Amino acid sequence: MRHGGSKCNVEEFMCSWPEKQESPLTKDGRAQIKMIIPKAKKARIDLIFSSDLLRARQTAQIVAEALGLKVKFDKRLREYNFGIYNGRPAEEWVRFLNGQRDMFKKRPPKGETRREIRKRMLDFIKDIDKKYKNKRILIVSHREPLLELQAGLMGLSDEEIYNNSVKLRLDTGEFRKLC
């Protein structure tokens, strides 16, 4: 599940770790998550893991309270590390990427590549798969990490991810079965 709509989504600024500007869920973002509760209940979730960034923590807490569960936080579920672009306007990030095909191996200064995101997300899945066999687990994270997780589980190449990114991308507040 991707976190609900938040301040950084509305105001269009990059927000990773450390959070230079707080980006809480908006009123609409909270409403998005509350609308997902019936679907989450139907999924019979056993465990919830979440990014520790504010918008994801708030999302996970809303779901956890409704399901009577506790949230486990994991740093590997954090947003893309935008490096020096953290806290900056989204348009600066777009200019840095300069055409998006570079996004898989292009590292922002003091940040990470998309390939590194994929690796940390897949490492997370391998770890929880060993510890929690046959459990239904909700992962609350962010757009690019969830896209990279899904693509990694599907074994897609960078080119295939690029060509299918619209289908792979989760909208704010979207709840989707990955496997």
From TrEMBL:
The answer to whether the entry has keyword Hydrolase is: yes
Q: Does the keyword Hydrolase apply?
A: yes
Give GO terms for biological process: negative regulation of glycolytic process; regulation of pentose-phosphate shunt
Q: Which GO terms describe its molecular function?
A: fructose-2,6-bisphosphate 2-phosphatase activity
Which positions in this protein are listed as binding substrate?
A: R2, H3, G4, G5, S6, K7, C8, N9, R55
SUPFAM superfamilies on file: Phosphoglycerate mutase-like
Q: Which InterPro entries match?
A: His_Pase_superF_clade-1 (IPR013078), His_PPase_superfam (IPR029033), Phosphoglycerate_Mutase (IPR051695)
Give the source's domain of life in one word: Bacteria
The active site consists of H3 (tele-phosphohistidine intermediate), E79 (proton donor/acceptor)
Task: List keywords of the entry alphabetically.
Answer: Hydrolase
User: What's one GO-annotated cellular component?
Assistant: cytosol
Q: Which PANTHER family match?
A: FRUCTOSE-2,6-BISPHOSPHATASE TIGAR
Q: What's the protein name?
A: Phosphoglycerate mutase
UniProt source species: Candidatus Portnoybacteria bacterium RBG_13_40_8
